[in-house]
Structures are given as structure tokens and as C-alpha cells.
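re: ur question from earlier - yeah i can do the single chain one, its not a big deal. heres the input i used so u can compare w yours
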Amino acid sequence: CFANSSKNNGRCVAGREVTAEGYGGWIRPVSARPTGELSLVECRYENESLPHLLDIVDVHLSQPAPLLHQTENHVIDRARYWIKSGELAGTELERLVEQPASLWPNGEHTHHGVNDCVSGQLARTLTSSLVLIRPDSVVIRVGREGAAEFPRKTRALFKYDGVDYSLKVTDPVAEEPFQIQGDGEYPLDDVYFCVSLTEPWERDGRCYKIVAGILGRQPF
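and the output i got, formated as C-alpha cells:
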């Protein structure tokens, strides 16, 4: 499990498949709902706890459900509990880091972000939506992005292959300690990011790059 992020009052979970030959491709278990998010009931263990990052989880899947560039999607079997079968050692992450040339196409930005979105038209040419990277020069920024009544946002500012990014953090466990500290910028060392490219947003048709999991030696 490399991502367990917030989505539409539910969760978006993702990870690499474990096979007899080693690690396989990415899997994103989704619900049968149009937006695919998992309710907290649908992604829990029998003891009602939720998966943590680096858990090794047995998930029963009913069928593949690719959605545009989100080729990793598979619909879950809602009748079966998820089962924790182990934990991945943090030292294993370096073996699983990927090295794409970039985090999908760059050059499109939101008002508060940097290289944080892709047009729907361009996204239709892509064939993946998940990647595990080791970023450089990481700073976590907490603050409001708009009117005072809006909730504070958490962003990850970092470099990857020399390019600047500013992406929203949707990993609630990693986000919480920074939110508690309050507005500000907090350097973060020796971590890995699971970065996800969302499905097109209904308001503008763009797909957003988000940090869906922060993994490493930090006490998250």
C-alpha cells in the first residue's frame, strides 16, 4: 500500500501488486460508483481498522475498470474484508522507486500550484496515473488558498529531475501533524512520494497531480 488518500469523503487506495516473481504493476482498488472512491467500510480489515502505508494487503477484485489514463483501476469485491498479510520494510522502498522523465506532461499550473495539472485532452494520451518517486528539496506548506472560511490546504513543494512542483497533499495521516503545527513551511528529508494523476475534474476537465502518499522515515 503506497497510497491511502482522501477522496470525496472516502479513500483512494493504491499500491504495487505482489506476485510470486516479485513486484508487479500498479493496482488501484475502486468502487463501482462513477467516481470510484472507496467508503471507509469498503477498505477496512475485519477488525474495522484501515490499511496503513506499507501494509501488504490481500484485496479481492472483481474486474478491471480502466478509466482513461487510470489504467490501474480494478473494482473490488464488496463482500470480502481486506486482509493484512504483512508489512513492507521501509528499506525496500529504494528498490521500488521509479524514474520517469517527468511527472507526466508539465507546463500547466493552477493559481497556487506549479506543474500540478494536465488538460483533459492531453490526459487522454497517457497510459498511467501512479508513480513512486524520491523527490528533492521537499518543503510542506500549510495555509489557506482563498477566502478565510476555506479550510487550510497542505502542499508539497519539491523538485524532481530538476523541475519544480507544488502539489496538493491528500494523504491524511501525513497531513495531520503539519496541520496541527499551523500555517507555515516545513522542510522534509529522506521521503518518498506516491504521486497520482486524478480523473478529469468536472468543473474544468483538468486532471490534477497529487501527493497521495508520503512514505519514509518520518513518524506519520
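The helical segments are 93-96, 120-123, 172-181. not sure if urs matches, ping me
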